[in-house]
Write a structure and sequence with these properties.
Helix content: 40-55%
Radius of gyration: 30 Å
Distance between the termini: 88 Å
Strand content: 15-25%
Structural class: alpha+beta
Order of helices and strands: HHHHEEEEE
Strand order of the largest sheet: 1-2-3-5-4
Largest sheet: 5 strands, mixed, barrel
Number of domains: 2
Shape: rod-shaped
Number of strands: 5
Number of helices: 4
Length: 152
Amino acid sequence: MLKDFLYNLGAWNWFIAAVVLIVLELIVPGVHFLWFGLAAIIVGGVALVSGIAWQWQVIIFAVLAVAMVFLVRRYANSAGMRSDTPDLNVRGAQYIGRIVVVSDAIRQGRGKVRVGDTVWHAEGEDAAVGARVKVVGVDGTALVVERVDADA
């Protein structure tokens, strides 16, 4: 009975499958089912227009689904995208090259520096309170600094 029902729906099975896959895409985090849903919509359209056998419909769906996954992975690769603000989420890296003032003396390689209205942990050569240092790197949440000559 269910077999006859599904067989009589024909191409509409693909549209139903597409809706189910797209709803799953909305529920499950990530972009996993969207491409299969789009492949199902295309196969449903082809089946409506041409009336091809269900075996060919399944083959077309499989080929389209795999092709869409590979195309999307190739052209929508977020790792290859360049940002105009690459240090946006690495706040300390934004300060590299900046001259700051020591607020807690740097002794035995550790101290604190003031950057604007924020105090940061600092690592570098020893420096007295009030000394000017240059940020040369970031180590976790600490700024790596080096002394600035009095002439500079």
